[in-house]
Amino acid sequence: NAGVTQTPKFRVLKTGQSMTLLCAQDMNHEYMYWYRQDPGMGLRLIHYSVGEGTTAKGEVPDGYNVSRLKKQNFLLGLESAAPSQTSVYFCASRLTSGGSTGELFFGEGSRLTVL
Amino acid sequence: AQSVTQLDSQVPVFEEAPVELRCNYSSSVSVYLFWYVQYPNQGLQLLLKYLSGSTLVESINGFEAEFNKSQTSFHLRKPSVHISDTAEYFCAVPAPSTGGSYIPTFGRGTSLIVHP
User: Fold this and answer.
1) Does A108 sit within 8 Å of B42, measured CB to CB?
2) d(Cα B9, Cα A7) in Å, to the nearest integer?
3) What chain A residue is nearest to B94 in terms of C-alpha separation?
4) Which three-class secondary structure state does DSSP give residue A51?
5) Per-residue pLDDT tens over the stretch B74-91
6) Alpha-carbon distance B50 to B67, whole Å?
């Protein structure tokens, strides 16, 4: 059982380039999230989705876009990368049946460096 | 606004010593509380959670946390740590969003460093 899979795991970009991070989950979870992790800042929510075809902004959405065309996939896009977007990105998912009590399942992270 | 506060960014401790990692939450949020652990170069995984009932909850690897409503705290403790407990620990709460759903919100994390 793969759980939550993120690709790529590492990427180096130049300022202004674009890229897409893919998150795939095989647990039939409704909710999916993208977080970024920076030293001393914990995890900050970028965007999230409560179901196929729906997305919403989190705490730090500027400079990112997302899409949830299929229930199992949640894509995070950077249209014009900036050095401030150098970070480790984590995708997570959870069932809705647990309501706000539901456990999050995380991918292993994608380390992005913008030069 | 931050809904959960972890008071220590780093906690160094010697092996076999007890440890406490502190977490305080905002009383306005739904009182479901979580601790996640992140081992080096890995994603986060659930360590334990409080939903209701007994205020003391335990994990399978010897950690425990106690929900204290009057002090709005959910501190994590272990009576005797191992080298393998070296990791980043995150306290989390589900905070209500404007859309009506709950968003898992994390503290800034506490780095537990266990020395031999």
Assistant:
1) yes
2) 30
3) A100
4) strand
5) 999 999 999 999 999 999
6) 7
Partners of A22 in the β-ladder? A7, A75
Which residue type sits at B71? Q
| Placement of tokens 């409704």 in the chain | A30
Name the residue facing B43 among A42, A100, A108 (closest C-beta). Answer: A108
Write the single-letter amino acid at A94: R
Is B43 close to A41, i.e. CB distance below 8 A?
no
The Cα B104–Cα B116 span in angstroms is 35
Stretches in chain A below the pLDDT threshold 50: none
Strand partners, A111: A10, A88
**Ordered mean pLDDT values, 10 residues apiece, chain B (116 residues):** 83 97 81 91 92 83 92 94 96 79 87 96
The highest-level CATH class for domain A4-114 is: mainly beta
Which tokens in the block code for residue B42? 């890995």
Domain boundaries, chain A: 4-114
Tens of pLDDT, residue by residue over A58-88, are: 999 999 999 999 999 999 999 999 999 999 9
Q: What's the CATH class of domain B4-115?
A: mainly beta
> Which distant-in-sequence residues (6+ apart) come within 8 Å of B4 by Cβ?
B23, B24, B25, B26, B91, B92, B93, B105, B106, B107
